[in-house]
Amino acid sequence: MAGDYNMMGKGNPYEEVIRVPMIVVPPGGRVTPPRVSELVETSDLAATFLDYAGIGIPEQMQARSLRPLLEGSGGGREAVFCEYMTNDRSRKWKCVRTKHYKYVFWGRKHPAEFYDLQEDPDEMRNLYEDVGYRAEIDRHKDLMLDVLMNSEKHYYRNETPSARDLQVWLM
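The structure assignment produced for this chain is given below.
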C-alpha cells in the first residue's frame, strides 16, 4: 500500500497488495497473446522455469507452468490463494480470489470478508452477511479448503487431511 485506504505496507488483502503485475519474457521473447489478464500465482514461475528448461515438474509441486498461457493454448487458474502473517503471528489472514469475487478469512475472532469485485472494485462493501451471496461464499470457502488440504500434506505425513479437519479450523 502506498497510502491507499490510508495504509502503508502489504499486510492486508486488498487488490493493491495481492494483484501484482508480472512481466514474463519466455525463451524466444514472444508471448501469444502479448497481454494476459488471467489469474496466476507467483509460485507458478518456478514450474514455468522447469517447463522451459525441459525438467519435469515434481508431482508434489502445486505450481503450474505458465507456458501454455504464454503460448496462447491455456488459461489461468480458477482461483488464486494468498496469505499473510506477521512474524509474531499476532495478525494473519488467508484469501481466495476468483475473477469475480474475493473471500478473506481472518480467523475466528474477526469477521470474514467477501467482495464482489465486478460491482465493488474498491472493496468498500463487505457482503459476507448478505444471504444473496451465500452460494458464492460457500463455493469460495470450499476453494480455500481445497487449497489448504493440498498445501498442508506434509503436516499429515503426506496424507491429505480430511475436509472436516480443515472445516473445523476455518469455522
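Interim note for the steering committee: The two ends are 29 Å apart (CA to CA). The CA atoms of residues 60 and 98 lie 23 Å apart.
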